[in-house]
Specification:
Chains A, B: It comes from Aliigemmobacter aestuarii. The structure is a homodimer. Chain A is of the alpha/beta class and about 425 residues long. Chain A has three domains: about 70 residues, Winged helix-like DNA-binding domain superfamily/Winged helix DNA-binding domain (Arc Repressor Mutant, subunit A), CATH 1.10.10.10; about 140 residues, Nucleotidyltransferase, domain 5 (2-Layer Sandwich); about 170 residues, ATPase, nucleotide binding domain (Nucleotidyltransferase, domain 5, 2-Layer Sandwich), CATH 3.30.420. Chain A has twelve helices and 14 strands. In chain A, the strands form four sheets. In chain A, strands 5-4-3-6-9 form a five-stranded mixed β-sheet. In chain A, strands 12-11-10-13-14 form a five-stranded mixed β-sheet, sandwiched between helices. The longest helix of chain A is centred in the C-terminal third of the chain and has 25 residues. The radius of gyration of chain A is 24 Å and the shape is globular. The N and C termini of chain A lie far apart (about 60 Å). Chains A and B meet through helix 1, helix 2, strand 2, helix 10 and strand 14 of A and helix 1, helix 2, strand 2, helix 10 and strand 14 of B.
């Protein structure tokens, strides 16, 4: 028999115990699983849905009927292999593109970007507003979202009432389910109820999320997620972020605050992070971490308003030209990135790691030395490492992810009775 | 539009694309979900199952019918609240305890342990064989499992033919699905097909797993998992291991080799780990890491056959008596443990962390300083940290986990057509 634990905090219960309180959901309602599968597949026949979900064809028929009545999916004709125009085409299910239009917005240190997409994720319009890199108060941030919304609506020839929801991405610690931002490098205040403030200002339901989750959602809805079940997206820009897809769904942790790879500690009492702690991965790898050593390496004085981008471009040029100090900055960043990525491999054992973000055009981050270092740091099983893909996409991808966030919310709202998207 | 990635490795596809190959399973077959829910609940009425799983009562009736015909569950009578002996009792579903008997075995540096349990997890017999801490070749390891099996069968008054499966836990890098051990501190060889070798030797289906997953399975089947959906189990003994439960299921990673917390790197070019790499968490926290500094602190020569346990007991006594060097060993181990646990919090955002293993009786590992350090290293969201519970269980718990592994396999085998447990 297991011993009684020292502190009496738990005990091993065995056999058929008494009734316990209902467990939180093990699986999602079938109609939602059906919707996700249809969305991921593009087009899929009912019989294949039933097979893949392990339920009866009758259950699938009921679920698809509900989804069609809700206007979310529709029947489409597909040619069967070998049909070649003869015979009746088979009927498959697909998402109804004009069921909803949503806005995705990404706010960053450098610019604000927005897209409008339809329910199938097709781009209708986009817009970008450059900005000076500084921290905003909540009101300035809401002003920026409103200006952006008006501009992208004008481009699309749509009014706000044509839109179903807004997905809003900000860097930092965000709990998407409560809509709170606990800390963000673009906001002066901590613990801000951003979702409700933006919903009130824009007159549309606004869902917020961490920007790394946005890129992950973009990959899940429109990219790698259509073929893979378990993958990591690591973003390297002004900070280091991560999103993780488990079994075709983003995993956010129990309270929605997980996947903060950039703030995992890679050195006790190490370099100072902008989050206020020491030894965080991003304090060795992110833009600002390189920039603060770059001023030393290049013997620049840190002028007011000096752009980090220009500083890093110069650092990169010097490194390529053979400047030893500049090279050592990139080399150290690459080694710590290898620590971070090997820790992701050792913990998650992913099918694929996607490195994403504008900074990925600096090839030092995925140089051969970095990849070799990862091999030295990932557990030695004799199996090959998971592939690492570089997706050097810009802010429009992040905005696409914000749109995917809004699409998720719209479909969850329509699929889960009792959940309502709050709007004024 | 998202830019085309530099390396052309992926592209953003949008809208309704062509049919893609079937996704790997998003959800498990309903009858398996039903079984898991019955097992976790102990007793549960059909109507509640349907509600929790979000499917029709008819679907649940079909699934439970299949499970009853397979002899895995049975109807049990429960009193409804307020019935007080009057009226008809309600009918609930429960696991059929005598459906199967399985063996769970844990092999460790120090001893081998086995239990026999019934399908409801109730203990029938247990046995333990102490051993000298050395590495074994495969044949010696198989000899040990066979001796252990015979002894625990004799105690239970059962023969091998009364048993359905054996769960076998070893430390190291184990892929449970293929039954391969890529590296283990108890085995001389690397990449050993342990499952098939043990299946052949014992004449029973043998399922192998990493020992940290066993403790997690024990918590999932018989402990914390009956009330929680997402939790971490971190084991500290001869090494540092982790198991993670997401949505009531153990998450093993894409190829079954994830959750190697003990081999995440907490220091570039750091202390040498017994896995052969440098800077692994366990190289700062595990028994052997403390032991190699203890010989310095206590000015002991490292005698042949000297027990690590005796060395660590002495170190602990010296630390309590005020020996500065001994204290600094524990203090450093505690700080690195704080790094490891805060990284688990920052990445997974768990509902609970369970610290498990025999070494947890040394309170330095969860001293106030360690907990305070975790607070300094976990992201500052203003929310409280997840609770950390200490379960100082012995090897019998691990063996119980091995039994849970065998029970999982037996039920998966009976529930998933096409999967067969291989036995001679």
């Amino acid at each position: 028999m297991p011993q009684v634990p020292k502190d009496g905090s738990a005990e091993v219960t065995k056999g058929c115990g008494p009734l316990i309180p209902p467990l939180s959901e093990i699986t999602r309602p079938l109609r939602q699983q059906v919707f996700d599968r249809v969305r991921a597949a593009g087009q899929i026949p009912r019989v294949q849905l039933a097979k893949e979900l392990g339920v009866s064809p009758a259950s699938v028929t009921t679920a698809t009927q509900e989804l069609m009545e809700a206007g979310l999916i529709e029947e489409v004709s597909v040619l069967r292999e070998g049909d070649q125009g003869r015979g009746r085409p088979a009927v498959a299910l697909g998402v109804r593109p004009d069921a909803h239009r949503v806005v995705g917005m990404k706010l960053s240190d450098r610019e604000h970007t927005a897209v409008i997409v339809d329910f199938a994720g097709r781009l209708i319009a986009d817009d970008t507003i450059p900005r000076r890199p500084d921290v905003m108060d909540l009101n300035s941030l809401l002003d920026a979202t409103e200006t952006l919304l008006d501009r992208v609506c004008a481009k699309a020839g749509l009014s706000r009432s044509d839109l179903s929801a807004v997905g809003l991405g900000v860097p930092g610690f965000v709990d998407s389910s409560s809509g709170r931002v606990f800390w963000s490098p673009v906001l002066t205040a901590r613990d801000v109820a951003l979702s409700s403030a933006a919903t009130q200002r824009l007159g549309l339901p606004v869902i917020v999320d961490n920007d790394a989750n946005l890129v992950t959602l973009a990959e899940l809805w429109f990219g790698a997620g259509r073929r893979l079940s378990d993958f990591a997206v690591v973003t390297i820009e002004h900070g280091v972020g991560m999103g993780y897809v488990i079994n075709h769904r983003i995993y956010r942790g129990f309270t929605g605050l997980g996947m903060e790879l950039g703030h995992t500690k890679v050195q006790l009492d190490g370099a100072l992070c902008r989050c206020g702690q020491r030894g965080c991965l991003e304090a060795y790898v992110a833009d600002y971490a390189l920039a603060r050593e770059a001023t030393t390496a290049l013997n620049w004085t840190n002028k007011e308003g000096q752009s980090i981008s220009i500083l890093l471009e110069s650092l990169y040029d010097h490194a390529k030209a053979g400047n030893t100090a500049a090279r050592s900055i990139f080399r150290r960043a690459g080694r710590y990135l290898a620590v971070g990525l090997s820790n992701v491999i050792n913990i998650f054992d992913p099918e694929l790691i996607i490195l994403s973000g504008e900074r990925m055009r600096y090839d030092y981050l995925y140089a051969n030395e970095t990849l070799a270092e990862i091999k030295n740091l990932a557990i030695a099983t004799g199996k090959p490492l998971p592939p690492i893909e570089i997706h050097a996409w810009g802010d429009l991808l992040w905005a696409h992810g914000a749109a995917a966030l809004a699409l998720s919310a719209v479909s969850e709202d329509r699929l889960l009775p009792g959940r309502e998207l709050a709007a004024q």
